[in-house]
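Whether sequence alone determines local backbone shape is best considered at the level of individual chains. When preparing material for the folding task, we compiled for one chain both its residues and its backbone structure tokens. The sequence in question and its structure tokens are set out directly beneath this paragraph.
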Amino acid sequence: MNTVLFDLDDTLLDSFNARIRALESVFSQTKVSRIGAVEFLNSLRGSQLVESLERLAREQNIPDDLFICYRRAYWLEKPGRMRLYPGVKKMLNGLKSKGYKLGIVTNKGRCFEFEGQMVGCVNELEDVGILHLFDTIVGFEDVIDEKPHPEGINLALRNLGTKPRDALMVGDSAADIAAAQAAGCVSCRAAWGVWPWTWWRKKPPRRIMWPPRRGTLSASSMGGSDFAH
């Protein structure tokens, strides 16, 4: 194995509070009722946000484009609102020093213009100081079908010149695990973040990466004790 691919939100990046603040602002402005931002976000379980917001608008007869409202509230916030999970930066540096190729496959936008500003996860990665560690980043604008479809993972592997059997895909959601399995990679569940443990029993990952120990994630866990097989 020579390559590790990561999901971004709730795997490397702790952006849950930023997403909650954006949704709370949108729900307040557009008069969404009967569901709160936390409950809505927790209900996604890796589903596409745009489709879920479109369905919510139809159900509540809201004329506004909730996804556009959300993007405005999320992307145009001031920088500095993101943070990495404890130990993530040290883990990535350790993997890089051992020669692993690193990539990100996310359903979030990679780098695009929105209302006159360049936004995307590239900016967030730069803000938290890990952009330089990744050899490829695949976002929603790079694919037709998002996770759980394997297209994004397949593209990342082509960019890196890696065969699926030589890659590990680490993510927190059922969509990440399904995409990894469909692509033929080794699937790995990140056992931290916000999603509950119940979902993965129906589609169990090959491995589990446990939460940080003493503030770090071991780079040696690629084949060692931090993984459950």
Observations:
- Helices lie at 16-30, 37-42, 49-59, 66-75, 88-97, 121-127, 151-160, 174-183.
- The longest strand covers residues 101-105.
- Residues 214-229 have pLDDT under 50 and may be disordered.
- The two ends are 15 Å apart (CA to CA).
